[in-house]
Amino acid sequence: MKKVFIRTFGCQMNEYDSQKMADVLSDAHGLELTTDVNEADVILVGVSRTSKTPTAIYLANRGLKTANFPLVPGMPLPESLETARKPLLVGLLASPERIVQIRQNRLLSLKADDSSLYVDRGAVADEIAACRRLCAKHRWPTIDVTRRSIEETAAAILDLHREHRLKFIAS
User: Fold this and answer.
1) Gap between the Cα atoms of 45 and 140, Å rounded
2) Using an 8 Å Cβ cutoff, are 87 and 129 in contact?
């Protein structure tokens, strides 16, 4: 049976998205949930609204087992992520202006209050800078998704994954 890994960190919106995703993947596609990140081929990390989930779905449809870890201010990175060896970890980045725009639209669609740090440009810039530092520290490649479609982002990840597999096989 095929497996799916879903572990949610952060805000209530992430919890909601993850639960919906788990229900769809389990009910409609018969996938089993797993908790081992090393079963993934690719792990996407990034701040909220960098298209991690749609990119993960696209990659899954291309046959890659993909995990998705949102980086949330004040939440530590799970140790399992820092010690993962088999999967390719990729940081997804975007400009602060683009992230704020997407988050404001998200809050509008949910009829939620938009006066939080979630849409504060300075706070968002800090989140993105922290993501860049994290990826640099672990030597994880990054992709700027500001002006990329999901398909373009996925194509870049597929290329990185091919290279990663060759390194993994050689060692």
Assistant:
1) 10
2) no
Tens-of-pLDDT digits for all 171 residues of the chain? 677 666 665 667 777 787 787 788 878 777 777 778 888 999 999 999 999 999 999 999 999 988 888 898 988 888 889 889 899 999 999 999 999 999 999 899 888 887 789 999 999 999 999 999 999 999 999 999 999 999 999 999 999 999 998 876 766
For residue 65, count other CB atoms closer than 10 A to its CB.
18
Write down the pTM of the prediction.
0.83
Sheet holding 88-93, edge to edge: 66-71, 42-47, 88-93, 142-144
List CB contacts of 78: < 8 A, sequence separation 6 or more. Answer: 7, 9, 37, 69
* CA-based R_g, the chain, Å: 16
Pairing assessment for the beta strands 88-93 and 142-144 based on DSSP bridges: parallel
Question: DSSP of 135-166, one letter per residue?
Answer: HHHHT--EEE-TT--HHHHHHHHHHHHHHHHH
Question: How far, in Å, are 9, 37, 66, 76, 153 from residue 25 at the CA level?
Answer: 19, 17, 13, 27, 22
Q: Which residues contact 27 (CB under 8 A, 6 or more apart)?
A: none
What does DSSP say about strands 42-47 and 88-93: parallel, antiparallel, or unpaired? parallel
